[in-house]
Amino acid sequence: MATDEKIDIRGLTLVGLEKYFSEIGEKSFRAKQVYSWLWVKSATDFDQMSNLSKDLRIKLNGLFTINAVKVHTSQFSNDRTIKNSFKLYDNHLIEGVLIPAPERMTACVSSQVGCSLTCKFCATGYMERKRNLNPDEIYDQVVLLDQQSRLNYNHPLTNIVYMGMGEPLLNYANVMKSIERITAEDGLNMAAKRITVSTAGIAKMIKKLGDDNVKFNLALSLHAANDVKRNEIMPINEQNSLKALAEALKYYYSKTKNPVTYEYILFDNFNDELEDAAELAAFCKLLPCKVNIIEYNPISFADFVNTKEAKTDAFASYLKRQGINVNIRRSRGKDIDAACGQLAVKQQ
User: Fold this and answer.
1) Which residue of 142, 181, 252, 317 pairs with 187 in a disulfide if CB–CB is 3.0 to 4.6 A?
2) Nearest Cα to 71, choosing from 43, 94, 41?
3) Annotated catalytic residue, options 115, 122, 284, 340
4) Are residues 114 and 244 both part of a single domain?
5) pLDDT by residue (tens digit) across 265-321?
6) Where are the alpha helices (DSSP H) in the chain?
7) Entry pTM
8) What is the C-alpha to C-alpha distance for residues 221 and 130, in angstroms, rounded to an integer?
9) Annotated catalytic residue: which of 95, 137, 167, 295?
């Protein structure tokens, strides 16, 4: 039987798997064993499932496929960041990054092949969006980056950020399912509070996060607290204005009580003046939040330039004087194009 005619076994719920096993004359507890192999032990081959009989493994191989993600290439930065291109079952490539720090190991994962949002400062935005990632393809990135972290740095992952290629909230159902598998006791059992989902700002989906009362963290790629400027660099703002986003974020906070993180890249002579800081401070007063000021990482497609260090410090100081929690985030992995906004698969 050809692979594309087989059922992707990780597309089935446990109930669905038990039903299927019953239909092929197998006991339901076998389905639980297989489910554990898939989601707790991260098996990528039925032959790894050593507590199943050889006959059952042969039967499973005939009926199902495990569309496992594989590491295609890895690059090691001078600062120990590791960027990977991952190959999917249909030969598409995506990228994911392991970011080591003294007290944390962070996996930056992708949610789409490419992106449809065309943010002017982001390399991924210049790629065509090919398709959404399935939940298991997001899960696999986490598993592979965790293995890489343990192998290279003798430390498990501590954090996951959905900040790689794609807009997570445009792949809402699959992103939510991946987080369910990553946080479930019969999955990777990671704490939801160690996961951050970053969005360019889709108001109705931010409200849906509130309705779903999510436990993970939300980050908004803001980069300008002025509609004219934000429209210029982020076309999505034309349909999701700052007013609409503010309303959605307040709704989200009223439901979840989770503070929001605003990501703000400083571009030289664009959004780095104290007037811009004042607009950002006003936006921050709407609900509990913190601001991550991010160093711009140049890409070949755009002419933006990172702001001067003195301006960065002045911008941050102004926000702090307004009582806002501010962090200045320095780039990681810039020398291998692994930093924020630089992910774009070049080796198709």
Assistant:
1) 181
2) 94
3) 340
4) yes
5) 999 999 999 999 999 999 999 999 999 999 887 776 677 888 889 999 999 999 999
6) 14-23, 28-39, 54-63, 135-153, 172-183, 203-211, 227-233, 242-256, 274-284, 309-321
7) 0.91
8) 22
9) 95
Residues shown for the chain: 348
Question: What's the pLDDT tens digit per position in 29-52?
Answer: 999 999 999 999 999 999 999 999
Which residue type sits at 123? Answer: A
In 3D, which of 166, 156, 218 has the Cα closest to residue 193? 218
Name residues whose C-beta falls within 8 Å of residue 212's C-beta, 6 or more positions apart in sequence. 176
Structural domain includes residue 180: yes
340 is catalytic: yes
Within-domain flag for 341 = no
Categorize the per-residue pLDDT at 207 as very low, low, confident or very high, splitting at 50, 70 and 90: very high
- The token pair that represents 95 in the structure block: 């990228």
Lowest mean pLDDT among 68-77, 109-118, 120-129, 272-281: 120-129
Looking at the domain assignment, is residue 277 inside a domain? yes
